[in-house]
């Protein structure tokens, strides 16, 4: 009887320990040396192609003074997973936005996102339809306009359409 009680106590203690959560400790970063740094290089240009550079120039030229344009902004810097969501692990939802970006983001002078812009070139095809649909639906869900512009279209007309979405 005493052995059974001891076994039950040990099992209960192990169960209690498995539910006890340790405070978050950020992972340690390994020190780097010249060999590690030699594996990296600076990119030549943030813009992958000429249409991206040209569209950026048109947007910048037409943008009102109190707004800023940013390129290659991570989705994770624009939207975040709500805290305390029932039934879904936060890390799973974070993975949906973690390695994605928008081509351009327009913010007001205080850094508040106002309009996101995607320049759809030849890389947007039937293979990217799910990713594009997810991005479209995500921006609708968070209440931030996402404007898609076809590469090599009339960028001046497109920029006016985008600027109409800015609040007065």
The CATH topology of the domain at 50-163 comes to Endonuclease, Chain A
Order of helices and strands: HHHEHEEHEH
Q: Are there runs of 5+ residues with pLDDT below 50, and where?
A: none
The portion of residues assigned to helices is 25-40%
CATH class category name of the domain at 50-163: Alpha Beta
Task: Give the beta-strand count.
Answer: 4
CATH level-two architecture of the domain at 50-163? 3-Layer(aba) Sandwich
Share of residues in strands: 15-25%
- Dominant shape: elongated
Mean pLDDT: 84
Task: Record the strand order, biggest sheet.
Answer: 1-2-3-4
Rg:
24 Å
- Number of helical elements: 6
Main β-sheet description: 4 strands, mixed
Structural class: alpha+beta
* N-C termini distance: 78 Å
